[in-house]
Write a structure and sequence with these properties.
Elements: E1 4-13, E2 16-26, E3 31-35, H1 42-50, E4 57-62, E5 65-66, E6 77-81, H2 92-102, H3 107-120, H4 136-148, E7 154-158, H5 166-183, E8 186-191, H6 194-200, E9 203-208, E10 211-216, H7 218-223, H8 228-233, E11 237-247, E12 252-256, E13 260-264, E14 274-280, E15 285-287, E16 300-310, E17 314-321, E18 324-331, E19 342-346, E20 352-356
Parallel strand pairs: 3-8, 3-9, 6-7, 7-8
Antiparallel strand pairs: 1-2, 1-4, 4-5, 9-10, 11-12, 11-14, 12-13, 14-20, 15-19, 16-17, 16-19, 17-18
Helix pairs in contact: 2-3, 2-4, 3-4
Bound molecules: adenosine-5'-diphosphate and magnesium ion.
Adenosine-5'-diphosphate binds at residues 13, 16, 18, 36, 38-44.
């Protein structure tokens, strides 16, 4: 177990800057996720920690030691990649024991460790089988067992669940979290899947085009996005432009382009400032009759349901309101609204996030 620190790490491939000046601390024993769209530099960051890629500039420290020049086999790391690449002609025990053998661990100890690792990933008794005799999910657990059996300081996981089908992926992610808690290992997990990141992580690092957009606990990055990129990437957000018409100490009024004035509880804006307003789809409520009184009722817009996307427990509606098409996610209590229904849309002032509009 160890803390990992990246200090102003950059990596260029010719003209492509894959990672720009990244500063990240992966705390000892924590589960951190690098989250972002394809091509944003997640794998490159992970490969630099692993020693598979050399940083163009910056330092990498593990447990306080600069390791830039330490070769991969001397960094005590467990690695799992999307294509878990087990040796097909070796048994499961030989696959898991490979790294132990390489490190010169005596056979009897190695056998014991292999059995323990199989217990941790909840696949006891498969030592003598071959990879082809296991399912995809089981093979992925073997890959995990192979990574943890060497008792690494850090576990590096690059989209380890993405080759699995949806149900298995959700099952495995719960198990992965349990295993990580059980062995308490510093873990860096790479994914482009926001729900995986939110479900698994102590800390999420949101990346875009080689930059770190935001770092924080899952609820923090979800509820307080610092940019429209983060708001859009995590969940379903409506982003509207507007300007601050009055700013008090407890609330501010924002004129939303095409919709009218809303009151937000966020403060610290100058009167007249151009802003962007983030309204999460699940924070918008639809009312067909008279909307209820109360705080939410101060922020209301008239609209019409244009599209209904039924999802079982939830419905995703698109509602035209002024020049906007608002996305609304509602739990279904009672009947589904149909297309063409006139509605009143409401939102709580504390459920909106106000961001500075980008400089023109
Ligand atoms: N070996 C390489 N040579 C050239 N460009 C690369 C190499 N590896 C990655 N890149 C580029 O660096 C950027 C980041 O890639 P990557 O780290 O794989 O992103 P992610 O894992 O987030 O999808 C991309 O533009 C990719 O094309
Ligand atoms: Mg990748």
């Amino acid at each position: 177990m160890a803390e990992v620190r990246l200090k102003a790490i950059s990596k260029s491939f010719g003209p492509v800057v894959a990672v720009k000046q990244a500063d990240i601390t992966f705390q000892e024993g924590s589960f951190t996720t690098l989250l972002g769209p394809s091509g944003c530099g997640k794998t490159t960051l992970l490969r630099m920690i692993a020693g598979l890629e050399k940083p163009t500039s910056g330092d990498i420290e593990i447990a306080g030691q600069r390791i830039n020049d330490v070769p991969i086999h001397k960094r005590n790391l467990g690695l799992v990649f999307q294509n878990y690449a087990l040796f097909p002609h070796k048994t499961i025990a030989q696959n898991i024991g490979f790294g132990l053998n390489y490190r010169g661990v005596p056979l009897a100890d190695a056998q014991q460790k292999v059995i323990q690792a199989l217990e941790i990933v909840r696949l006891p008794g498969v030592e003598d089988r071959y990879p082809s005799q296991l399912s995809g999910g089981q093979q992925q657990r073997i890959a995990l067992a192979r990574a943890i059996v060497i008792e690494p300081d850090v576990l590096l996981l690059d989209e380890p669940l993405s080759a699995l089908d949806a149900n298995l992926r959700e099952e495995m992610r719960v198990e992965l979290k349990n295993i990580q808690r059980q062995i308490g290992i510093t873990t860096v997990f790479v994914t482009h899947d926001q729900s995986e990141a939110l479900a698994l992580s102590d800390k999420v690092v949101v990346m875009s085009a080689g930059n770190i957009e935001q770092t924080g606990a899952p609820q923090e990055v979800y509820r307080q996005p610092k940019s429209t990129f983060v708001a859009r990437f995590l969940g379903n957000a409506n982003i509207l432009t507007g300007s601050v018409v009055s700013a008090g100490t407890k609330s501010a009024k924002v004129e939303v382009d095409g919709l009218g004035t809303v009151t937000v509880t966020q403060t610290g804006f100058a009167k007249g400032a151009a802003v962007q307003l983030v309204m999460r789809a699940e924070n918008l409520q639809l009312h067909t009759g008279k909307p209820p009184a109360g705080k939410a009722a101060t922020n209301r817009f008239a609209g019409t349901v244009t599209t209904v996307d039924y999802q079982g427990q939830l419905a995703r509606y698109f509602v035209s309101a002024g020049p906007h098409e608002l996305e609304v996610i509602s739990t279904i209590d009672g009947s589904l609204l149909s297309e063409g229904t006139p509605v009143t849309v409401t939102i709580n002032g504390s459920d909106m996030v106000v961001l500075d509009a980008p400089a023109q």
